[in-house]
Amino acid sequence: MLKEFRDFIARGNVVDMAVGIIVGAAFTAIVRSVVSDLIDPIIGLIIGGIDFSDMYVVLSGSVPEGASLSAAREEGAAIFAYGSFITAVINFLIIAFVVFMLVKAINRARAAAEEHRKAAEKEAAVPNPPPGPSELQVLLEIRDELKKRDASAAS
Fold first, then answer.
1. Quick one: which of 90, 2, 82 has its CA closest to 39?
2. What is the CATH number of the domain that holds 41?
3. In terms of domains, do 63 and 44 share one?
4. Closest Cα partner for 78 from 88, 89, 68, 63?
5. In 10 A of CB 98, how many CB atoms?
6. Spacing of C-alpha 5 from chain mean position
7. Which domain holds residue 99?
8. How far apart are CA 41 and CA 26, in angstroms?
9. pLDDT, tens digit, for every residue of 1-14?
10. pTM exceeding the 0.90 threshold for the entire prediction
11. Contact 58, 72 (CB under 8 A)
12. Do residues 29 and 80 both lie within one domain?
């Protein structure tokens, strides 16, 4: 059983999957940083610092006026937290757009590298023209032609 487990772990696709998960976690950290550190502040300036996350409607129970969402939940009231949903949708759209832009940049870089590789292959595939005849070969051909003319003139 230990040998089977070792063989399973050593298989390429399991190792590839592990690498993918690790790289995915690192990529997630990058995307979160781009969204929270760069994009969210800009959006906050544009919409005037409105925070949707504390917007809710009390369905049943009593909640003090102006209480935060967490305070309303602590009161045990049934609430419809539409602001949290709006925040989640906005964050999803921002993250999806950032991932789209990153993938687009990566694909553009890949395409440029592929184009460069194809151009290098095409250049390497063009054979060098065969070298012309050497000086000695040209002189020998001239000599042979002169011999033929002399032989035909003498006949």
1. 90
2. 1.10.1200.120
3. no
4. 63
5. 18
6. 33
7. 51-127
8. 22
9. 888 877 776 776 77
10. no
11. yes
12. no
Same domain, 123 and 55: yes
- Rounded Cα distance between 81 and 88, Å, is 11
String of DSSP letters for 99-134: HHHHHHHHHHHHHHHHHHHHHHHHHHHSPPPPP---
**135 against 154, higher pLDDT:** 135
56, 72 Cβ separation under 8 angstroms: yes
The pairs formed by 96-103 with CB atoms below 8 angstroms and a separation of 24 or more are 98/31, 98/34, 98/35, 98/39, 99/31, 102/31
Amino acid 45: pLDDT = 82
**pLDDT average, residue stretch 132-149:** 89
Q: Say how many domains are in the chain.
A: 2
Q: Is 69 exposed, middle or buried (0-12, 13-18, 19+ CB in 10 A)?
A: middle
Q: What pLDDT is recorded for position 109?
A: 93
Same domain, 4 and 16: yes
Q: What is the 3-state secondary structure (H, E, C) of 31-49?
A: HHHHHHHHHHHHHHHHCCC
φ and ψ of 93, to 5 deg: -65, -40
